[in-house]
Design brief:
Strand order of the largest sheet: 1-2-3-6-5-4
Structural class: mainly beta
Strand content: 35-45%
Radius of gyration: 19 Å
Largest sheet: 6 strands, antiparallel, barrel
Helix content: 10-25%
Oligomer: single chain
Order of helices and strands: EEEEEEHEE
Distance between the termini: 69 Å
Length: 118
């Protein structure tokens, strides 16, 4: 019996990817859905969401300080990958989102009775 050797495929990306947790909106074909940018590079982004467009769909990604068009180049059950139409600054996008998260006041719940909070 012949034996086969499998090797892991090497990452061949030219641009660095940065982990992110940035809330955004994805628009396509008259549809607007909330998504989360999970990682981003100069030319692409990994998004997660409940309802995402199909491969090949032209979309617009919008978040604080960013509005960019792109094409869905792969999809999965709750995620998709975008190829952006022009380069972006990933670190600036992550930093802008962090600033706006810090602007939100904390939510404090006070117990008002058994299993009741206000």
């Amino acid at each position: 019996m012949d034996s086969m050797t499998y090797r892991a495929r090497a990452e061949r990306r030219r641009e660095s990817r940065y982990d992110a947790d940035v809330e955004a909106t994805l628009n396509w074909d008259g549809i607007s859905q909330p998504v989360t940018i999970r990682n981003i590079s100069m030319y692409g982004a990994l998004l997660t969401g409940n309802w995402l467009p199909a491969v090949g769909e032209w979309v617009t990604l919008i978040t604080q300080g960013l509005e960019v068009c792109g094409t869905v180049i792969w999809d999965g059950p709750d995620r998709c990958g975008l190829l952006l139409s022009h380069p972006v600054d990933p670190l600036a996008i992550i930093a802008e989102a962090s600033v706006h998260k810090m602007d939100l006041p904390p939510v404090i719940l006070h117990g008002t009775g058994p299993s009741s909070y206000a």
